[in-house]
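Supplementary Text 2. Reproducibility record for the structural model of the 188-residue chain.

All settings were left at their defaults, and a single model was retained for analysis rather than an ensemble. We include the record here because the model underlies the residue-level annotations in Supplementary Table 4.
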Amino acid sequence: MNAAAARLPLSPSKTLIKFVDEIALSGDGPVLDAPCGYGRNAVALAARGRTVVAVDNDRRRLAVLERVKGVYIAESASPGVSIGRILTVCADLEANRWPIAPSSVSAIVCIHFSMITLMPRFVSSLRAGGCIYIETVGGQGQNYRELPRAGQLRDLLCRHADFRYYREQKVGPPEWNTVSVKLFARKW
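Retained model, structure tokens:
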């Protein structure tokens, strides 16, 4: 694959990039990117030397990531920085069987989050001192129905983590009290 064909189709989350170096230094365990989609955020972390476990339920997306991840990581890496790797896992995150062991990851990245029920699993899988970055879907169309209520994510994490960044934006009809959220926290 030539360099022109290897361009990332999508850039990583702009807000995630503000914290990517801190996430890269969050410990020696792997980073969980779930759901990873085509891996745009996993590539940004692997380019900073991290091993990333990229989980998604779409085998086609994971197959594309497997084919191009080496070129994408090398293209995104800074000169002189050792590059990491991406391990892909096809799994349904909403299934009863959670694919990540307790206290096994140093960081979790979850972009386009809409599954509130995953928060206890995330907290369980994250090592003490590990980082968690969550960015919900925005407020387009009817997806406000999937979003958390105002303060809900903060309340779910406040007993486990210290927030470094937390932003809510009201979306949907006022009676729903739903918000899009971007947060970055470190587990105690």
